[in-house]
């Protein structure tokens, strides 16, 4: 099962991620913030408050939004 092991906010909507399979890279979520949970994250101040949640092995925000590791990995550059 794919998990995120580390996450770091970079700037704008970019996040550096490391996965448990050893892959790492940057994802840009700027074009992927739609829907009731994600539209508020267009506010960069809120977006920058992302944290790595080891309980669910992915990133999450104070408003409860989180994203599946598989989706995030598909966006790696």
Give a quick summary of the entry.
By secondary structure, this protein is an alpha+beta fold. Helices cover 13% and strands 32% of the residues.
List keywords for this structure.
single chain; 32% strand; 77 residues; NE0471 N-terminal domain-like; alpha+beta; 13% helix; 5 strands; 2 helices; three-stranded antiparallel β-sheet
Helix content: 10-25%
Write down the domain tally. 1
| Major sheet: arrangement of strands | 1-2-3
Q: Report the CATH architecture.
A: 2-Layer Sandwich
Structural overview:
This protein is about 15% helix and about 30% strand. It is globular. The protein has a 3-stranded antiparallel β-sheet. The protein has a two-stranded antiparallel ribbon with strand order 4-5. The longest helix is centred in the last third of the chain and has 6 residues, at about 70-75. It contains 2 helices and 5 strands, in the order βββαββα. It has helices spanning about 45, 70-75; strands spanning about 5-10, 15-20, 25-30, 50-55, 60. It has one domain: NE0471 N-terminal domain-like (2-Layer Sandwich), CATH 3.30.2020. With about 80 residues, it is of the alpha+beta class.
Write the layout of secondary structure elements.
Layout: E1 4-11, E2 14-19, E3 24-28, H1 44-47, E4 51-53, E5 58-60, H2 69-74
Antiparallel strand pairs: 1-2, 2-3, 4-5
């Amino acid at each position: 099962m794919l998990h995120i092991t580390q996450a770091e906010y970079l700037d704008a909507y970019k996040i550096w991620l490391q996965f448990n399979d050893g892959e790492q890279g940057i994802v840009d979520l700027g074009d992927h913030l739609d829907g009731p949970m994600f539209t508020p994250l267009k506010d960069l101040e809120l977006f920058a408050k992302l944290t790595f949640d080891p309980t669910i092995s992915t990133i999450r925000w104070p408003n409860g939004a989180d994203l599946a590791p598989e989706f995030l990995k598909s966006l790696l550059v």
